[in-house]
Please model this.
Amino acid sequence: MSRVTISVSPHPYEALIEAGLIERVGARLREVLSGRDRLFVIAVALVRRKWGKQLMASLSEAGFKAQWAEMPDGERSKKLATVEQLAERLVRLGADRDAVVVAFGGGVVGDVAGMLGSLYMRGVDVVQIPTTVLAQVDASIGGKTGVNLRSGKNLLGTFHQPRAVLIDPQILSTLREREFRAGLYEVLKCGVIGRPELFSRLERTEVGKLRRDPAALEWFIAEAVKLKAEIVAADEREDGLRRVLNFGHTVGHALETATGYQRFLHGEAVGWGMIAAVHVSRAMGRCNELTARRITEATLALGPLPRMEVRDREILRAIQGDKKVRRGVVHFVLPREIGKVEIVGNVPDDVVVAAVDEIKRLSKNQYPQRAHKVVEFRFEQIK
Ligand SMILES: NC(=O)c1ccc[n+]([C@@H]2O[C@H](COP(=O)([O-])OP(=O)(O)OC[C@H]3O[C@@H](n4cnc5c(N)ncnc54)[C@H](O)[C@@H]3O)[C@@H](O)[C@H]2O)c1
Ligand SMILES: [Zn+2]
Model:
């Protein structure tokens, strides 16, 4: 088991990462929730069906009285109305200020339940039990909560740190393969940002095998959590350092926006975005060819990535409209070497367009006859 402390004030908390943890969740929660009995578990039907029995058995064994509050699945339900409906349900169930909200699901449930917890009776305790790769390595750590508005994603939100994060890599066994792979791009991202050993091990790992190897998964997830914990502790409110976590996200978010969130899973868009950032970094003389090639190849090896069919103009427009534009300047997180990135605020448009063109070309090579299969490619092809 790995224990990672997230050192935020005034209440630091721990993330526990252990294969099979779901069987012992109740006992672990007892350590952090003394004298509290009532838990309200927020989940979607699918996750409740697959893992609900085990969770509830472990909670009641530890003496908790836990009740379900279900919400609809999918990014579309990440909206204020869902928070309101869940709050009404909590009232009906008699939840008071001592209630503990348990977020049991992917990033959507984590964000909605986190926001609910931060608002319900002006704030109650939240525990995160993330069930997707993305939620385990990213969304559940750091206390960001939020919902989407019709005008854009994550525009309404709060900071509300959880009391504990309980991570069981075994829960990922029921995840759809594509969702699993999509989360791994974020793990690879952590390697590039600040964990060279994580990067090089993932570079040498076959995704299919990793999925069936809980012990290995536990190590990868723990390393990614450690990186996120270090960054969050250094920059709790996302003013500076925390922005390095946006490696791959400048172009990634733009791809999601330009395709109306239909074509790419978030991690997949970040996958293309990381490769684009590598090109920008190369074009600006910030990293050497070996670094560029390793990041590109390792990213593609996690694929297949969905085909890129997006106009440059749309991508540029989306980049300009992104939240990461500060005072009119677009920021890119660029790799210098494996384990080291820098934030650069003056990337010329033509360099961005060239990088996007390169990932398009790479995408064509990836799908010569629209076959959904990664073909071998040579880095020289993409300059
Ligand atoms: N708060 C943060 O810091 C932060 C960081 C990154 C992302 N996010 C947010 O996270 C969200 C995306 O999260 P996601 O990728 O986890 O998507 P998601 O929550 O929609 O989950 C993806 C799908 O997997 C299903 N699922 C979840 N766990 C499962 C399991 N164990 N077995 C089978 N199916 C399972 C879900 O029901 C859903 O259909 C976005 O809204 C994003 O904005 C938040
Ligand atoms: Zn992300």
User: Anything to note?
Assistant: Residues 44, 46-47, 50, 73-75, 78, 105-109, 111, 131-132, 134-135, 138-139, 142, 144, 154, 171-172, 174-175, 179, 266 surround nicotinamide-adenine-dinucleotide (ligand 1) (CB under 6 Å). The first helix runs from residue 25 to 32. Residues 369-383 have pLDDT under 50 and may be disordered. The radius of gyration is 21 Å.
